[in-house]
Design a protein that fits this description.
42% of the residues lie in helices and 30% in strands. By secondary structure, it is of the alpha+beta class. The chain folds into two domains: 8-40; 67-189, VirB8 protein (Nuclear Transport Factor 2, Chain: A). It starts with 9 loop residues before the first helix and ends with a strand.
């Protein structure tokens, strides 16, 4: 005589584990994710009737840049354009402007007399000037030492002989606050990897 077949408990174990996982996900959603989303979209009405994002713990709207971060980004964009823009007519002034916005290793590189002479010779022999327009800036974050910021800058460079052909350059610029002025201390081309 054959014995009745016993059912395996495996489906019940799998169902119990799946149920426990579902409960855990629901708890995480309602306790962590949903409140966070609500905080990001809260607004307040000013006394003038304008609706603005609600300030976060720092007093600024969530995700807003600080005044220091904004100033660092502006300085990085300006120095990126200055390091690329040179005219033959005002070469000395353009070079001094680029040098004034630099500090540390970058300033030493820019101040190199051989570099300056080679650049001026290239412009003179090629009979062109260089100009630049900053297209975008993006804050990467503070430097490892915390004494400055790293900023990504997209600049379109132009030769005076072909102003309709922009030469895009993506740069990573490190800026530092030196005596109340943001100066570039490092400059690197960023390529697509």
């Amino acid at each position: 005589m054959t014995e009745p077949r016993r059912e395996s408990p495996a489906p019940w174990i799998v169902a119990a584990i799946a149920g426990a996982a579902l409960v855990a996900l629901v708890v995480v959603f309602f306790t962590v994710l949903l409140p966070d989303r609500r905080d990001q979209h809260r607004t307040v009405q000013t006394s003038h009737g304008q609706v603005v994002p609600q300030p976060g713990a720092s007093g600024q709207p969530l995700g807003a840049l600080t005044d220091q971060e904004t100033a660092a980004m502006a300085a990085a964009g300006t120095e990126a354009a200055n390091l690329i823009s040179y005219s033959r007519k005002d070469f000395a002034a353009d070079y001094a402007r680029a040098l004034a916005g630099a500090t540390g290793k970058l300033k030493a590189d820019v101040a190199d007399p051989q570099r300056k002479a080679a650049l001026q010779q290239t412009l003179t022999q090629g009979k062109f000037d260089l100009s630049a327009k900053v297209q975008h800036t993006a804050l990467v974050g503070p430097t490892a030492k915390g004494n400055g910021y790293v900023v990504l800058v997209t600049v379109y460079g132009y030769k005076s002989t072909s102003l309709d052909v922009p030469i895009p350059q993506n740069l990573s610029i490190t800026v530092q606050n030196v005596n109340g002025k943001w100066l570039a201390s490092d400059f690197a081309l960023v390529g697509v990897q």
